[in-house]
Structures are given as C-alpha cells and as structure tokens.
Amino acid sequence: MNILYISSKMSWGGVISWMLKTSQGLEKRGHSVWILSNPKSKLNAEIQVKIRLIPKVLGMDYNPASIGFLVRFIKKNKIDLVVTNIEKEISIGGIAAKISRIPNIRRVGREDDFFSRWKTKFNHQSFVSHCIVPCNDIRNQVTAKFNWLDPEDFTPIYNGRNLQEFTEEQILQQRKKIGLSENDKVVGITCRFSKVKYVQNLIEAYQRIADEFPGWKLVITGEGSEEDNLKNIAADTGFNERIIFAGFSSDPILSAAVYDIGVLTSRKEGFPNSIVEYFAAGKPVIATDVGGVKEIIEDNQNGFLIKFGDIVQLADKLSQLIKDENLRKKFATRARQDLQEKFSETQMVDKLEKLFQDQIKGKK
After folding, report:
1. Predicted TM-score of the model (pTM)
2. CATH superfamily entry for domain 2-160+345-363
3. What is the pLDDT of residue 48?
4. Burial class (CB in 10 A: 0-12, 13-18, 19+), 49
5. Which residue of 122, 137, 181, 340 has the fewest C-beta atoms within 10 A of its own C-beta?
6. What CATH topology corresponds to 168-342?
C-alpha cells in the first residue's frame, strides 16, 4: 500500500504520535507512507527518525492550490489511501482523495473533534470514507451526540506501544539531563501543557505530601501554552527546588523510565498515549477516570483511577504508592502484561493494516 497522512497541526499531540508510530510500523511491513506536515510544526522540528516527510502549508479550508497539489501527488506516487484528522485536513485532503477516487480515513482523537455545525456534517458525510478511534468510549460518545454519525463507520484501534528496556547508563544519563540524582525518587507526568490537562492539580497534590516524603521529586515533562502559569504555581508551593520542568521529550518512554510513579490529571481524554507509555516503561499509574482511560486502567490492579479534580484523593493515592513499594511492583507487573496482551504496537499495526486493506479493496 501507498499511504498519505495529512497533518496541519503545529503542536505535538496524540494524533501526531499516532501518525509517527503507525507510519513506522507500516513501513517495516513493506508499505510506503508519507506524512504531509506544516514546515514550522513541532513534528518537522523535532523528528529524529527517517520518514517520508512532505513540508507543506495547507492554507485556508478548501484551498484549491493545496487540493491540486495533493491530487497531483496522489497520482504521481500512486497513493491508495489518505488519512486525515481535523476539518481543515478533511476539507483539502478529503476532497483530493474524492477527486482521486481513493478512501480518506479520518483518525478521530477525541469526542470534541466533531462540532454541531453544518460544515462539520458536510465535510464528514462528503469526504470521509471511514473513521478510526483510539477507544470504544469515543465512538460511543460521538455517535450518541450526533445522530448523523453511524457507529458502523467507526473502528476502535487502541494506541499501541511496545515494552522497552533501558540500560542503567541510559536512565542515569536521562536523570542527569533533567537534574535528578541517581537516588531521587520521582513522581512524573508527561503531557502537553494545555488547560485541559490540569497539571496544577498534581502540583497541589504533591505540595500536600512533599514534607512527608523528602526523598521524592516531581518531574513535569512537556511544553505548551500553560507552561509559565504552571511554573508560577510551582514557585508558590515552597518546594520549587523539588519540582523539575524537564521540557519537551521526543522519547517519552525514556522520560517515563526515570519515573517511579506516572500520573495523568486530565479533565478530558480520548485514549491517552502517556498511560501506555508509562506501561511501556513498566511504571505504576494514577489517572483520572475520564474518556477511554478506564479501558486501560483497571482500578487497583494495574493502577489507580481517581475522580477528576479530587486533589485530596490524588494526594492519598500518591502517598499510598510511595509508602508501598510492593504495590508499585504489583501495578508495574500487571501493566507490562496488559501492554503485551492488549496495547502493543504489533496489535495496533495489525488492525490498522487490515482496515486500510479492506477500505482500499472496498473502494475498488
């Protein structure tokens, strides 16, 4: 298969990670995958692996110049299938796919990828052949909310990661890079710094227990619009020297490898990559019970589920895991097992490859 992914996003998020991982997986199986991305995007700036990258600004919705460029690209490279995400990409890439008579698969990251407006319905019904969602929860939410969406047009495919083992030297170097000593214990979070992630809740929960556990530090990995605000909140805790902002990471599993506990505090999620990345590094997890999180975390088996916004509960669960090393090991062992059985990259690419092949055959 020859596949074209189209991304107009500037920041690095879950869909970008998905595109990168799946394109690499499909390439290893002999398929050819191109990713069209804004030249000034985080993907173009931070990419460290060899991929077929097309730097291109799409411009306005329904841009005829961009549609023409894509139609020519599709014809020249014998593209079999296009993958898009947000409406801008559908309004350009979806039209180019329609003109070229090939499927356009929409990868839906969260339920709020859909809106109650005529253009959303028009674009989807006119230019989308099928949808991929990362969990059942998103399919159920969007099809319940919008009666013009057919559940049969959505295929859930979990985001996958493979277990990774790092040498002591790799982990030590990563610790030194972000200012940790060899003996520091770490509560960590990896995410994009947006309002919906509510990293400030973790900072407040950490502040509540920091005096009791002086050997533990908080590492916050990522970047985004809320960074200055979060740093100001951390500075006001009185534990600023024990709260480390590690910056953007192009290898989030290596970042997670230095954590002893991984945390997610979001108000909204689809199927968060960060949790499967914590699993891939073999870490116990505490996560808010939102979106598709409960499809990954089984409470008190491979992690703790907590109510969004309940800082007291978050602090209590952190304290419980910090005190109980055996419980951390239990959660970590189960997390590894669940990753291999349900959330591996191999399973993700298997299902994606079959879906793409079925869609191409159906179109023909």
Report:
1. 0.84
2. Glycogen Phosphorylase B; (3.40.50.2000)
3. 60
4. exposed
5. 181
6. Rossmann fold (3.40.50)
